Amino acid sequence: MNTVIFRTLAPFLTALMLLFSVFVLLRGHNEPGGGFIGGLIAAAAMAIYGVARGIQPVREALWFHPMAIAAFGLLLACVAGLVSMLAAVPFLTGLWIYPSLFGVEVPLSTVMLFDLGVYLVVVGAITSIALALEREDI
Amino acid sequence: MQSGMMAMTFVAFCLPFAGALAAPLLTRLLGSRAALPLSLFPLAIFVHFAQLLPEIGRGEIVTGGYMWVPHYNVSFSWLIDGLSLTFLLLISGIGALIVLYSGAYLKGHPHQGRFFSFILMFMGAMLGLVASDSFLMLFVFWELTSITSFLLIGFDHAREASRRAALQALVVTGGGGLMLLAGLLVIWDVTGVTQLSLLLSFGPEVRASPFYVAILVLVLGGAFTKSAQFPFHFWLPNAMEAPTPVSAYLHSATMVKAGVYLLMRLNPVLGGTTPWETILPAFGGLTLLVGAVLSIRQTDLKLMLAYTTVASLGLLVMLTGFGSEHAAAAAALYLVAHSLFKGALFMVAGLVDHETGTRDITRLGGLGRAMPLTFAAALLAALSMGGLPPFFGFLAKEEVYVALSGGSLRSMAFMLAAVIGNALMFAVAFAIALKPFLGPRVATPKAPHEGPALLWLGPMLLAVCGLAAGLISAEVHALVTSPLASAIAGQPQVVTVSAMPHVSLALLLSAVTIVLGVAFFLLLDRARLAADRLVEDIGWGPDRGFDQFMAGLVRFSHRLTRLLQPGRMEVYLTITFAVVAAALLLPLAWYGEWPRLPIWPADAQFHELAVMALAIAGVFGVLTATNRLNAILALGIQGFAVALLFLLFGAPDLSFTQFMVETLSVVILTLVMTRLHLQPRDARPLSQKLPDAALAIACGLGFSLYLLKVTQGRFDPVLTEFFNLYSKAIAHGANVVNVIIVDFRGTDTLGEIAVVMTTGLAILSLIRIRKSVAGSAATATGPKKATAGDTQR
Q: What are the subcellular locations of this protein (chain B) (predicted)?
């Protein structure tokens, strides 16, 4: 695991995987993908970075404690549900708006917010487990 | 009720909780002076409900409320008749005085704000309890009073006695609350109504029901524990560990009367039957005597009062169940009189304690000159408790004797109990009102002087009310006691008894009571010794029984836990997988539903076969691996092969997830292995390997057969069609799997991510327990697999 090639490439790989995970997350509504899968990809990216560079750089790069990220995700998912209640429809009913940004119609929804919450919970929970296990590495 | 009044009533029920929220902040800002603004909350409630007096006095019933969960017919609704209104006024009126009193009593206490908060919360619960119309609200508030009482009794949580008393009260009254819940459910089942106001017209149905006795036992279980009836009386004296304002408020005037309230409320429904008129008077009468005798035995002012409270509650239960013509009126009068004089006497006891540093009656004397106002309040209250004219207590006692003077053997037995009990309570009342204040001055820990106004205001006001109510009895009857008695009896009642003594059997009995009471008072020291010896001779009591019960419960739980949780990972895993195998295989064998053998797919493509071969190779690799790391990697190969199969057969989402889960599983399993510091090779002896292998094969076989059976069954495509049809149309998504996860079944997903999150937290904390590294990291793999399973949907 300690090869120079791996250590040099790992950050680029991680960046690419993170980008890909967001892509998978966003396209999930119409194509294969979604919050769960995206979250797992991002967690794998973190694991690669951790194996290559050690856990301290991962923690620094994440900025927040991974469990806090997971908690924020859960909060986001709940908020997505509550927004529906404010609009006087049952909890977690999907609401859609279609704002026009630079002439392009962008569909936004509480469902997307919810999926983002799922993504963050999965990334946060799995990364924090992996980091905790790696802490006293060999 | 017009909507404006209804909204006001709703606000009145919410006010105490608002006060409870504001209390800590106010106390931080104002210190003990926060009592003044905080007492406005109960005062406002008192004023609001006092407006209803004329209406209720005319015999009307005020109901109102809002639907809460219309789907289940659950409402937040109230029923205010004479019974509820009397309680509402007592709770809010005495509550206001108690808040003021505790402002001075706990002045300078570091947690005074918390105390105010608890007591206001209790007030809210109690108000809700006595006004609730729906069963559910009744139960919720009932248990809420138990919980707030727990917090208040254990307020001084640094002392072990407080904690024990708090827990005891919670276990006894909370357990009773569960019985009440069961009783209410049975009533619901029998009658189909969930509201007291409707239930009142279902009396004959309930009494004729074959479940009547069950209902009775369950309801009485709730009422007797709450109202401290023998043999559940023991928690009440122990609750005297609470600060005195709590004792005065909860454990004399209000909460302990909740059980009596319930019995009175249900008297028109459940009453009038032989079991009712046997059990209630029998337990009530016994409680009256036991409480009175035990109160004589005490030297602590609060404990003396606590046991007389037990006795008074017994008297109330006895009257409620007695069923004679004047019994309802007697119960109504005694209820009001008792709340006034007992609240006052408790506050006096606290005042004496506060100013002298002791409340042991043998170490107090001659305080009358130093504390004249306290003395006056104590004397006024004692005169009412002793039942002397023209105090309200006298009216109550007269009516009690009228109710019991039926002439039958049963009446005479209970009358004897009432005379003896009342005489003993008379002695205790005057022991408390006279002994500390008269006679030679006894040195006390603190030099006595009159307490601040807030401390003597409460008892004085209550005691004066006891006198005033006796003097203007006609008005009190019209507004309070007659509607109250009518609600208890379930039919209109007119209370007429006045403070004017008139020659009758009841007056004679009153005189006998007073003579006996004076005799007990004069012989108090000797009576105390006698009562003491009696209790010593009996030796065992329910209080000790409670300790034995709790100790037994703890021992039993400990043994059960040791049995189920021996702390060995192998045992846990073996049991888990054995249960999995049994759950899969036994139903198939039991119903003989074995699947047909699958037909070899003749049109299998080469690449499909190759992937299958890869999976088998992976399993083979796991079995033959020479070290653990290789085994994990081989398991990963098998998982990847399965993921490929998913991909080939049209489940891209599933396969996608499976790939990621397998990757992460390999990484995390490897990390766990390195932390466990295991030997690289598996060193199990053959004798252990064989049973493990059998278990593994059984599980694998079970899953395979089960899946085969499922796929061979007829497939119902209704859901598939539904989702395919509506996924794009109403959820705006083409990926049906994801639309199901985040939209159609979003609440499921919300639950699942909460589980993922919680599992993560659990694993994190297990890993952080350094000392048991081995155990923690090994468990970590279990939930990990579970989350992986979740994500594979």
A: Cell membrane; Membrane
